[in-house]
Amino acid sequence: MLAAAAVVLGVRLVVTLLDGRPLDLVGAGLSLLATTVIGAALVPPLVHHQRRLVHRGRA
Question: 2: Cβ–Cβ under 8 A, 6 or more apart, which residues?
Fold first, then answer.
C-alpha cells in the first residue's frame, strides 16, 4: 500500500518539478501518510466483505 501511494506521489512530484512549480514536501509527506493509514484501515475489511459475498455466491 505504501509503495503504490509512493509511486503516485512520486509521479505527481516529478510533474510539479517539470512545470516549474514549488514542491510542498510537507504536504506530500502528509498525503503519503494519510493514504497509507486510510488504505491499511479500509482494505482488509473490504477484502473480508468481498470474500463473504463470493462465498455466498453474490459476487
Answer: 32, 36
For residue 30, give every residue at least 6 positions away whose Cβ sits within 8 Å of its Cβ, in sequence order, or none: none
**Predicted TM-score of the model (pTM):** 0.73
Longest distance between any two alpha carbons in the chain, whole Å: 53
Please give the DSSP secondary-structure letter assigned to residue 23.
P
Q: 7 lies in which domain range?
A: 2-56
Q: Give the Cβ contact number of residue 2 at 10 Å.
A: 13
Q: Express each pLDDT in 17-36 by its tens digit.
A: 999 999 999 999 999 999 99
Question: Other C-beta atoms within 10 Å of 31: how many?
Answer: 15
- How many structural domains does the chain have? 1
Length of the chain: 59
